[in-house]
Design a protein that fits this description.
This protein has one helix and nine strands; from the N terminus they run E-E-E-E-E-H-E-E-E-E. It is an alpha+beta fold and 143 residues long. It has one domain: Roll (Thiol Ester Dehydrase, Chain A), CATH 3.10.129. A seven-stranded antiparallel β-sheet has the order 1-2-3-7-8-9-6, with helices on one face. Strand 7 and strand 8 form a beta hairpin. It starts with 6 loop residues before the first strand and ends with a strand.
Length: 143
């Protein structure tokens, strides 16, 4: 994940349907067949920031959009339109600490299974190499 990102800043719009002020991914670092690696540098203007901290709903939305970016990357690689997905379920969400303004979140999304239009994934989010959040998530893809 330390090499040059594949997509950054405005380029992320090619991978996800979200737009400001709700864009919670600003970097797509890399991907394998079942994993995607994303990032977000938390700005003070972020709608999920309160008292200098990036709140739990923001972390969950960042993870969901990381999954969306991974799906968008795969769709783009196959000349398909960017899919639209919805959070169906969040399980085993753990947060060790809230990120601060100017922290850079780095998230690893791993697809566990895909059945029809439902993806089950695990996610780990780190700041400076320290695990700050993890969960399982089900995403429903709109057909």
């Amino acid at each position: 994940m330390d090499k040059n990102p594949l997509y950054k800043g405005e380029g992320i719009k090619e991978l996800i349907p979200q737009r400001a002020p709700i864009m919670m991914v600003d970097t797509f670092y890399d991907a394998t067949s079942d994993e995607g690696f994303t990032g977000l540098t938390v700005s003070e203007e972020n709608i999920f920031c309160k008292d200098g901290l990036f709140t739990e709903p923001g972390v969950i939305e960042h993870i969901a959009q990381s999954a969306s970016a991974f799906a968008g990357y795969n769709a783009k690689a196959n000349n398909l339109p960017t899919p639209i997905g919805f959070i169906g379920e969040v399980k085993k969400f753990k947060i060790a600490k809230l990120p601060k303004v100017n922290d850079t979140l780095k998230t690893n999304i791993k697809i566990i299974s895909e059945v029809m239009n439902v993806s089950l994934l695990t996610a780990e989010t780190k700041v400076n190499g320290e695990l700050i959040a993890s969960c399982q998530m089900k995403i429903f893809i709109k057909e």
